[in-house]
Amino acid sequence: MKIENYVRDIQGFPKEGILFKDITPLLNDPDARKKCLSILVESLKGQKIDKVVGAESRGFFFGMLLAQELNAGFVPVRKPKKLPYDTISASYELEYGTDTLEMHKDAIQKGDRVLIHDDVLATGGTAKAVCDLVTELGGEIVQCNFLMELSFLNGREKLKDNPIFAAITY
Ligand code: PRP
Ligand code: MG
C-alpha cells in the first residue's frame, strides 16, 4: 500500500492557483492510517519521546496517534485565545502579516524529549513557531515530523539544525 494514494489533489482550494493536498482520504482509511503511523514511528528508530507537540488543527490527527503509540504525553499548540491556562506564544510570518500560536506554559518540562508533528511542512513558519515554543520551555527537539513536505517551498531552511522527517515529499 502506498500512503501517497490516500492524499487527494484539490485544484483551486482554498483559492485559485493553489493545489491543495487533502489528507481526509488517509484519515478515513484505518489501514492507510496504520501504515502512515508506522512510517512516522519507524523514522524515530526507537528514540525515547516524552512529549508529542501537535499544531492546531491538522497536526492534532496524527499527533495524538503518535503520542499514544509512543506512550508519550500530547501537547496541543493552539491558535490565539483557545487555551484556558497560562500560555506562552510565538509569532510567525504569513504572506501578508503575522500569525501567533500558543502553548500552555506547564506543558513541557526542562529536558523533555519532544517530537513536533504537523501534517504539512510548507514555508516552515508554523513549525518554526512550534520549535520556538518548545525551546522556550527547555524542551529538547528530537525530531520535527510531517505527513508531507512541500520541498519546493524550502521550509526546512527555517528549521535549521532540527532533524526533519516527512512521510511523503512533493
Ligand atoms: C497549514 C498546515 C500546516 C501549515 C503549513 O495549517 O496544516 O500547519 O499550514 O504551512 P507553513 O509551513 O507555511 O507554516 P493552517 O494554518 O492552514 O491551519 P489548519 O491546520 O488549522 O488547517
Ligand atoms: Mg495546520
From TrEMBL:
Gene of this entry: apt
Name of the molecule in the record: Adenine phosphoribosyltransferase
Chemical reaction(s) catalysed: AMP + diphosphate = 5-phospho-alpha-D-ribose 1-diphosphate + adenine
Task performed by this protein: Catalyzes a salvage reaction resulting in the formation of AMP, that is energically less costly than de novo synthesis.
Organism: Flavobacterium artemisiae
Annotated coiled-coil segments of the chain: none
Phosphoribosyltransferase domain ranges (all copies): 36-148
Quaternary structure annotation from Swiss-Prot or TrEMBL: Homodimer.
Cell location: Cytoplasm
Pathway: Purine metabolism; AMP biosynthesis via salvage pathway; AMP from adenine: step 1/1
Gene3D superfamilies: 3.40.50.2020
